[in-house]
Input
Amino acid sequence: MAVIPDGPAKQALETCRTRLLVTGGLFALVFAVVALRVIEIVAVGGGTAESQIARFRMVTAPLPSHADIVDRNGNVLAASLDSPSLYANPKQILDPPEAASKLVSV
Output
């Protein structure tokens, strides 16, 4: 059996219990809001990530152009040059030797 003190100690204990209950209630409220939002997305919105993609606009940033590197006299030491690039996804290549021979010709 616990002994409950009288006076200021009892008041401090009651204050702690009240704060604990308020904090627990706030956590329960936040959890309920998150749970309701998940239910809304799954039940009403179709439940897939693809259904949410339409909400976002795709923005492509222009490639940064780097400044030339010059020496103290203003002579260009290095410059950025545009060059073509080529890439392939290995999982999508059905015949690697044929793809290699076609890439060599490019």
In short: The beta strands are 69-70, 76-78. The chain has three helices and two strands. The first helix runs from residue 8 to 44.
